[in-house]
Amino acid sequence: MTGEVWLRVRGVGKSFAGVPALDGVDLDVRAGEVHGLIGQNGAGKSTLIKILAGVHRPGAGTIEIEHEQVSFPDAAAANAAGIAVLHQEPQVVADLAVYENVYLGLVPPRVGPLIRRNEMRRTCREMLERLGVTLDVDERISALSAAQTAMVGLARCLLLGAQLIIMDEPTASLGAHEVEQVYRTVERLRADGLSVIYVSHRLDEIAALCDRATVLRDGRLVGGLDHDELQDRQNLVRMILGVEPSRLVRADDREPGEVALSARGLSWRNRVVDVDLDLHRGEVTGIAGFVGAGRSELAHLLFGAARPDAGRIEIGGAPFRASSPREGIRRGVALLPEDRRHQASVGEWSVRENLTLAALSSFASGGFIRRRRERERYAIDEGRLGIKAVGAESRFSHLSGGNQQKVVIAKWLATDADILIFDEPTQGVDVGAQEEIHRLVRDIVADGRAVLFISSDLEETLRVSDRLLVMREGRIVADRRARTTTLQETLALCFGAEDPLAGHVG
Amino acid sequence: MNASTPTSTDTARPDTASPVTGRSGAGPASTERGMVLLSRYGTLVGFVLMLIVFGVLADSFLTASNVANVLKAAAAMGVLSIGLTVVLTLGDFDLSIGYTATGAGMLAAGTAQSFGMVGGTAAALLFGAGVGVVNGLIVTRLGVSAFIATLGVGQIITGWLLAYRGGVQVSGDLPPDFTLLGRGTLGPVPFLVILWFAVAVAAYLLMERTVIGRRMYAVGGNPVAARLSGIDGKRVRLLAFVLSGVLAGLGGLMLASSLGVGNPTAAVSYLLPAFAASFIGAATLREGQFHVGGTIVGVLMLGFLANGLVVTGVERAWTTAAQGIVLVAAVTISTFARKVAAR
Fold first, then answer.
1. Mean pLDDT across the stretch B26-34?
2. Secondary structure element (H or E) that encloses residue A275, with its range
3. Residues 6 or more apart whose Cβ sits within 8 Å of residue B290
4. Which residue, A484, A450, A183, is CA-closest to A334?
5. Whether the predicted pLDDT of B82 surpasses 90
6. Is A374 left (phi over 0), alpha (psi -120 to 50) or beta?
7. Which CATH number is correct for B41-342, 1.10.3470.10, 1.10.10.650, 1.10.8.50, 1.10.10.10?
8. Contact A358/B at CB under 8 A
9. Are B211 and A364 a contacting pair at CB < 8 A?
10. Residue B24 has pLDDT above 80, yes or no
11. Which is higher by pLDDT, B252 or A235?
């Protein structure tokens, strides 16, 4: 389907303060191609994107568009050449209408001094139509979902006359049902003959969506892959990490220990329906399912953050009447919530302060916090969890996603919990840190503790878990050994389709 | 430093800043550093400059007796500001403190007439605590915004003040030790000042060093994360309102004791300066975070500014305007510097 090479990048390099961030990278993007750009944080993806967007000027190398050499002194020049960026954080004004946002910062059509709003509306509708999106152009951004807001950003890219749209982690903050919309739109752009550079940490997404992909590591080009090669997940991970796939973490299929937590007939507001569940010591129980299947709600019930409408929970054989997270923590339950920024941390605090928040009393005597004890704990966790921060006093919000998540995990380990619930622990975390988190999860159960592992990434869930539960519409619809379950089976169970392969897979 | 040593010139790369010599080139990094410093220390530097300027202009400004007077005059408002700062830290408001303090002063005088100074003191503090509990319960149990709740409670107290003793001031029949707290000194230092600083130190330790303080900052910083970390946000917020109420009660008592009467409007005008001091404090030493130490600086700044203008011969009416200017300037400079630094 794809046409001629539209963008050709050769030997591009860039250094910051003498440190190379990008070194001799090549990239070809054809017309009508969705091109994945993959790599860990620090691999050079952002630098490359910023060069193409006219934010940074390359220190070396050439950029050609349709065989003409170009250079972008600023972002406007890149736009004029046909390159536009859809940023991860939407660049919108929440109180303005859709059409006003599409025109944000651009010269609107005018008669004399008067803005022709109807023409703006009409043009905006055309752009949205090209994207295959129906959206009221007079709606305020604040009333839109995250996916719809992304569509407004894309409409703006089209209005700029983009031939190539760079999408920087467009699905990082979207739920599974919203991701669908982004997929459909990308397909539409491709059919329209536009090119897309698609940046994502979600490898299943890259494999599904991209015609080809370029892998970067440490600022250098590792290689290019076509669509078929992208389906080999292990090879992909090896290229990204530079590590053999045989060294990837996987469940070791040990004998489960005694039951640490059990729930019977648990229900909550139709989101969780009649759930029976046993979490064993020494075992990772994975829950697969789509966003909205009730997984996070179940996690909150088990932690005590929500009170069940029906059913009962026992921890260590004694009844647990959930009334507050405090109660859950006291009984040895920990919940790593799905939204790190809003639910798990105080961004402007130091790493040290975030680390000890859930177990403050154990760092205090006589009500006074002993900072030395906090720092000692950090020093231990820094090494054990591989946290890469400038030190205990680094500001939490300045850390990368992976390091933030490790700090949050450390915070829960400090509570000495023996039942740990991980809700989407690898979201917004680069592939290297994902592996380290998988290893941590396995280490935790090797200690004889119990883990409930919730993830939208099915491959990861299958690999890390001993036991696999599938949740759909609030119910647990399958319970099996993870090792003998395939990806296709799991996906079919998530969708609620009949399990077509059940009889064929050993 | 060692420019003459051949090895250093051989290895040094011309385009890199040399942290060794401490002379990093005037690049964007140094601007950023400067802006961070300005946002944190700008207020303090301004404060010191102000002291110097007034000290040069008026010989009487930096004398021990004048300084003692300024501190004494600021003490009651200073105590109120500390309570307000705690509430602000949690992202709440307390608009009732001025009325609470006034009511506490009236009640202290009224009670002292029959039950002596111990009774008066207890009445003032209990009244403050009671108002705090009411504020806190309305906010945390009924879910009313703190702004509305404390405004309403303040109004109620005002109404009660008008009814209590017919709205006239409480004087006469007061025990002789009623003014001991307000007018006594330890050597050259007024009791009021000692009490203010004792409260400040205690509040500082509470907020910065204890489990309770850390929890308060957590609830203010991210209430959802605090809850999911096992912190009972309602209890913490209630406690903050009680603290604010008790300190307002104490401030009212201090004021009544120094006035020697219970006056039905004594501390009503303290509300806005207390807010101003807290906001100046948030622009001092930290980046937009309310904290006890900053608030003390804010109170001192407003106090010395008003006094300095008066001793240099400016009409008293202008001192309030000048305080407003300082508030806006301090917050503006700090905010602006932070923005530039974050670029």
1. 64
2. strand A272-280
3. B85, B88, B89, B278, B281, B282
4. A450
5. yes
6. alpha
7. 1.10.3470.10
8. yes
9. yes
10. no
11. B252
* A490: nearest Cα among A456, A452, A448: A456
| Res. B22 pLDDT band, cuts 50 70 90 | very low
| Cβ separation A368–B214 shorter than 8 A | no
Domains delineated in chain A: 5-246 (3.40.50.300), 249-332+418-506 (3.40.50.300), 340-416 (no CATH)
pLDDT band at B28 (very low <50, low <70, confident <90, very high): low
DSSP-H helix ranges across chain B: 6-11, 28-57, 64-89, 97-142, 146-163, 180-183, 191-209, 211-221, 223-228, 233-259, 271-282, 292-311, 317-342
Closest CA of chain B from A65, distance in Å: 31
Say if residues B299 and B78 touch (Cβ distance below 8 Å): yes
Per the DSSP assignment, residues forming a β-bridge with A259 are: A280
| Three-state DSSP class for residue A25 | strand
| Chain B residues touching A361 at Cβ < 8 A | 211
- What is the per-residue pLDDT for B306? 92
Q: What mean pLDDT do residues B272-287 have?
A: 89
Q: B287 and A348: CB-CB below 8 Å? A: yes
Residue A284 φ/ψ, nearest 5 degrees: -95, 120
List all residues 6 or more positions away from B255 whose beta carbon is below 8 Å from its beta carbon. B76, B101, B105, B182, B266, B267
Average pLDDT over residues B171-192: 92
Q: Can you give A145-192 as a three-state secondary structure string?
A: CHHHHHHHHHHHHHHCCCCEEEEECCCCCCCHHHHHHHHHHHHHHHHC
> Which alpha helices (DSSP H) does B143-189 contain, by range?
146-163, 180-183
Asked if A324 reaches chain B (Cβ–Cβ under 8 Å), the answer is yes
Point out which residues pair with A226 in neighbouring strands: A212
Sites in chain A below the pLDDT cut of 50: 1, 498-506
Interface test with B, best of A307, A343, A360, A398 (most B CBs within 10 A): A360
User: Is residue B16 over pLDDT 50?
Assistant: no
Given the cut 0.95, state whether the ipTM is greater than it: no
Rounded-to-integer distance, Cα A74 and Cα A57, Å = 8
> Which of B215, B222, B229 to probe the A interface (max A CBs under 10 A)?
B229
Percent of chain B with pLDDT over 70: 90
What is the percent of chain B where pLDDT is above 90?
A: 69
CB of B18 less than 8 A from some CB of A:
no
On the question of pLDDT at B23 being above 70, the answer is: no
Six token digits for residue A353: 């302060």
**Which pLDDT belongs to residue B6?**
36
Residues in chain A: 506
A87 SS3 class: coil
Q: Is A361 on the interface with B (CB under 8 A)?
A: yes
- Tell me: the pLDDT tens digits for B254-266? 999 999 999 998 9
Which residue pairs from B173-179 have beta carbons closer than 8 angstroms and sit at least 24 positions apart in sequence? Answer: B173/B113, B174/B109, B174/B112, B174/B113, B174/B260, B174/B261, B175/B112, B175/B113, B175/B116, B175/B117, B177/B116, B177/B117, B178/B109, B178/B112, B178/B117, B178/B120, B178/B256, B178/B257, B178/B260, B179/B257, B179/B258, B179/B260
Q: Which of A167, A185, A150, A178 is nearest to A37 (CA)?
A: A167
**Of A202 and B198, which is predicted with more confidence?**
B198
Q: Which of A17, A342, A361 is the closest to B16 by Cβ? A: A17
List Cβ neighbours of A106 (8 Å cut-off, separation of 6 or more).
A159, A160
- Whether A110 contacts chain B with CB within 8 A: no
Check residue B29 and give its pLDDT. 61
